[in-house]
Structure formats: structure tokens, C-alpha cells
Queue: 2 jobs
Job 1
Amino acid sequence: MAIEYLGLNSINGPLVVVDGVRGAAYNDIVRFRVNGNEEKLGQIITMEGEKAIIQVFDSTTSMSLDNTHIQFTGHGLEIELAPEIQGRVFDGIGRPIDNLGPIHSGIKRDVNGAPLNPVSRVYPRDYIETGFSAIDGLMTLIRGQKLPIFSGDGMSHNQVAAQIVKQAKLGEDSDEEFAVVFAAMGVKHDIADYFRRSFEESGAMDHVTMFVNTADDPVMERLITPRVALTTAEYLAYDLGKHVLVILTDMTSFAEALREVSSAKQEIPSRKGYPGYLYSELATIYERAGIVKGKPGSVTQIPILTMPNDDITHPIPDLTGYITEGQIVLDRVIEGKNVYPPVGILPSLSRLMKDGIGEGFTREDHSDVANQLFASYSGANEAKSLASVIGEEELSDIDKLYLKFGELFEQKFVGQSQDETRSIQETLDLGWQLLGIFPREELTRMDTEVLDKYYKNTADEVLNQQTTDKPLV
């Protein structure tokens, strides 16, 4: 039988303090009844002896020291799960907001998850196709991987996220089930509506489970949202056998909420005011991606974060880079050239890509094409730097060819429209067309057998199209 307490010791913003508490623990859920009828939820964030500090998932303006009844549940936040959760929209702590009623199921899971034995992990192999040439061709997303997108304020990461949800699928020959869990944290209402409308209009909503925490929702809810999303993903993957892609946006809002709660608790701040445990908090989220031995399905993560002042050394992207297996960096200079998606190729990478591409996965030439495209684009940037010093007219013929390749690569390979999806085969064929403008002896990052099979000189064909909008493939 749960004990009910009457009265609070103090209220400080979203935090309330209750003394004389017994049998409660860190992370336990607390139920409040204000003025005899208003219901609120909270979570214990600190236990000091018999004193509990509770973060309220709502406004505390109606609460006073003597009008609040408190009941400690004795367990963490749990959500109900069922196959019908797909196609539904929930708030940040798992309550339905789509007017379709609650989920009724006998399955309840703690959103904090269970510790995963590293030995039980299976090394990721197969790829997930996003439909973007820049990602699929050069920084391939592998099932079970965590591959973040680093963006900046005002850039097109929301459009990229929505398009990935609409286009993402398993490999061409796969007949396995695929699902998407999408969690938005601290977004404006118009952005939340944009995501929901995009998924519904494209027909993708049938296999999407959506969690939305808007900017005017409680900050504590923002800290719970990614955990609720990942608990749902784990159920879909390990119980129902689906391969699940989880998109979390924006992890910067999550970190800001963590800093706000830490400040309210009067903790000693670390770098740029963030708490010293920011790394471990991010790790508990990112490390829930993977494939588990003996379990069907997989959980793959694409966390999206906006870098404050476009600073990749800021604590949030810096710590994220330590935990995850690569990054996709959106470049403001590329976006300024009207290229979408504005992926910065050279600072982006996927550390698991090499083991999930090639013969038996994508195509035998994938690794060679990716290596050569990276090298040739790097050469284009070097030629551009040289031209800024000595002038373009003084460049050698081959350097001028690299300059043209750089322009074509950004516009035709990286760039594509917001309703265009490319298969991995189309991406690789496009790469060969662009590389074909070079003489064969310039393609030094490729195996001779691959060149013999795929190389074709396309200089006349491709360079004559460079001033048109006609796609190469």
C-alpha cells in the first residue's frame, strides 16, 4: 500500500522538496494531487537521507506548501507498449496526443532501460538506405550504428530529418520489417506540425511512432523523451523483430534542459555551465543502439544536434563524437551555395561503413568509389585554394579539371531535391559518371580490376551538362 504525504517543504521553480520520505529511491515517479483534483507527475532527482528533491513534469504555479498531496509509486516511469503503437503520436512522456485514445496492453517497460552486457552485442554489418547519395555513398549508415548529424541554427536539418524518415529503408533485397521512432525535443509548434504533416502526407506515418516535446513543455519532460523513444524502439526491435531507426532531434535541447535542471539543483557546473555528468547522460542514450545476440531486430540511431555558434568543439558535439561511430556534418558554406542536403563531405565519416558495404552488401565497387570521391573532392579543394592565390587561369589543365569536378560533385552528387530518393545503385553509377571526367591514371585510389569493369571516360558527356539542371543519372 502506497503512503501518501501531505505538504511540501519548499518549491523552487520546477523543483519541490519533501522531507520525511521513506521507501523511495532515485528516478522513482511521484504523483501529485493539487487542491484535491489537479493531477501532476514528477520524478525524484535527488535523495538526501529522508529528503527527496522532485522535478515536476508540469508548471508548479498552482502548487503551494499545504495544498498538495504526494504519492510515491516506488518505480520509475513506465510506458505501455503494443504493436498498435506504430502510426501514433505521443507527448514527451508517452501520453497520446493524436485523439486516438490510450494504448491498452499488459506490457509495461521502464523508460530507463536495462543495462546491456557488451559481450551480448553483435557487430553491425547490413546497411540502411537513406536515399541521400552523400550519406549512402560516402558515410553509409549501418544497422545498429549511432551516427549523429551535426548542424547549426537555422540550417536545413529538420528537412533532412523528415526526408530520412520518409525515404529510409533496408537494403534492396531485404524482406525484413522496418520501423521508425521519431522523437522531437524542445521544438516549436510549427516545426512539430511540419514533421507530423510530412509523415502523414508521404504515407510514412504507418511505420512511424512519434514523440513530441515542444519548447513550452516542461524541461524535465525533455530529459525523459529520448528514453521513452528508445524504450519503444527496443520493444519494436527485440520483441517484435523489426529493424528500427530512431531519430532524436534536437539533442542540444536535451543538453540545455539538463543544464537548467542542474542549475536549479545548485550543482557545481563544468564546461560552459553544463553539469559534469553530461557525458554519462549522453552515453546512456546513445549506447542503447545496437544488435543483441539472440534477439531479433536492431536499433539504429541518428541523433541530430545544433552546434552553438557552429562550434564543433562545443561540449555537446565534442562529447557526442566520443561516444558515437562517426558524424554527418552539415556545412553552412555548402548551404550558401544552394546545395541540399548541405553535407560537408570532408569532416563527415562513418566508422562502421567499411564492414557494411561491398560485395554481398551494397556493390563490389562501393569502397573504391567512396575512397576516390573523397580523394578527388579533396583535390578539388586544394585546386580551389591554389586558384585563390595564383588565379584560376594560371592553373594546370588537370587542376582546372579538379575545380570543375568539385562544382559538379557538390551540385549533382551531394545536391538533390527534397522529393528525390536515390538507390545505392544510382548513387554509385552517378559517382562513376563524375569520376569519368578524369583520365584513368588520375584514379589512384581504385583497384585495377574495379577500373577495368566500371571505368568509362565521360568527360564530354558530363562537362557539357555542367551548366544545366539536367540530372546525370
Job 2
Amino acid sequence: MATTLENANPTIFQQKKERDLRPEEENEDLVDKIDEREFSLTTVVNLIRSINDPEHPLTLEQLNVIEQSLVEVDDTKSYVKVQFTPTIPHCSMATLIGLAIRVQLLRSLPDRFKVDISITPGTHASEDAVNKQLADKERVAAALETPTC
């Protein structure tokens, strides 16, 4: 944890409740495609919502760093895109947050999914540099080797 906080008084948002997904009928032969809303709410957002912010004892959801509306999922193309919004425009932890999101998804989703993580456009002073680092395969591989990330 940093000794001096960049954002000493972050705005804390209410966490959303998980969806109740009781099937109306139980049919084992039915192949049910995962739609964007179901998949993003039940899988992707639930996987990353409880990641702790590196600077505060709060989750990314509580700080509104991640939002369901910024998650795109295409099950047919095996593609997941997550945009995240740092709490302040000059957040020095943005790369670490993005790597934590990417690593959590790569470790949790089936291997067939391509994961694209980026900063919400216009929300960070070094948006292009951070996005370039988040797309760097060597940096992601190093993060995957770290068991606590």
C-alpha cells in the first residue's frame, strides 16, 4: 500500500447484487448460448468486481472503476472487452489495475476467449501509454507468473 494516497477521499459507490439465475425449465439437452447481458453480469463482472484497489481497502466496483456497461462479451467470437475508469485522471496504479483485471479473467475464463482490457477513453492523462502496456504480451506473461496478482 502506498505511503501517501493520490486520491485520499475516493467516492464510494453502492455494489450491485448478483442476479438470481434459476432456470425456468431444466432441460439437459438444451444448448443455451450465453448472451452479452447474462455473461457480462454473471461471469465477467462477478470475476472482477471484488478485485481490491491497490491504494484503498475497497473493491473496483465500490470505486466505480468497473461497470457492467463498460463490459462487452461476444460468445460466438470468444471475445471479452473490459474498459475501466481510474478514480482520478493521473492515477499511477492504472496499469496495475488493468493487469489485475486481465490476469483474473485469463485465469478464470475458458482458454478460447481473447481478453481486451483498456482504460475508458478520455479518463486518464496517460491513456495511450497505459493501454500499450496492458496489451504488452511480456508484461502480461510476467503478471501471470506472479501468484498474488
